[in-house]
Amino acid sequence: xxxxxxxxxxxxxxxxxxxxxxxxxxxxxxxxxxxxxxxxxxxxxxxxxxxxxxxxxxxxxxxxxxxxxxxxxxxxxxxxxxxxxxxxxxxxxxxxxxxxxxxxxxxxxxxxxxxxxxxxxxxxxxxxxxxxxxxxxxxxxxxxxxxxxxxxxxxxxxxxxxxxxxxxxxxxxxxxxxxxxxxxxxxxxxxxxxxxxxxxxxxxxxxxxxxxxxxxxxxx
Length: 220
Ligand SMILES: O=C(O)c1ccccc1N[C@@H]1O[C@H](COP(=O)(O)O)[C@@H](O)[C@H]1O
Prior knowledge:
This protein is of the alpha/beta class and 220 residues long. The chain has six helices and ten strands, in the order βαβαβαβαβββαβββα. Helix 1 runs parallel beside helix 2. The ligand O=C(O)c1ccccc1N[C@@H]1O[C@H](COP(=O)(O)O)[C@@H](O)[C@H]1O binds next to strand 2, strand 6 and strand 8. Pathway: Amino-acid biosynthesis; L-tryptophan biosynthesis; L-tryptophan from chorismate: step 3/5.
């Protein structure tokens, strides 16, 4: 389970205490979850080793990635823009880090965009397309039609993302069988403000959903 958009020690500590496998930090100035690389680095030091540290960037140039990687020392780079397979290869060669590539999904043909990245990215993250007028490529709290993933090759490793919350995660997991999930705005009381009780409710809901399905090695 990845909790994304962490900005405070309280939220980061709570996420790992609940058992989050991944802790995400957003480097995108237009986001209410944006955090300065040095601040993120200080937070990450407090939870390092208990959750994988994920740096989320959007079409970042090398100088921005240099700053983020140097300050945060992430375990994983989440590329949440329009990064091409060639760009992913370049980023991996420069930084030597696993890459999780976000792809936005609205219709079944969007799954065709997976193929060029196979063998290049370490994992996919499937998010909804941003609503019209949104300035954010992610963190919009909107879901896509999870049934579209029925057409997905079972060997594709991905995190399910986009508009997840305590009320819908049971259905999302039942429909997709996703082994890993990512949440940001669904555990916030205001944009960029994590709510510990909403985090509790989300983890409870995931655990309930996991208990109800056949087990084959949960990684949520
Ligand atoms: O959260 C953001 O503000 C953000 C900004 C830029 C790129 C990605 C961002 N967040 C990612 O969006 C998804 C889904 O978020 P939500 O649960 O629907 O709010 C998640 O992968 C975040 O990593």
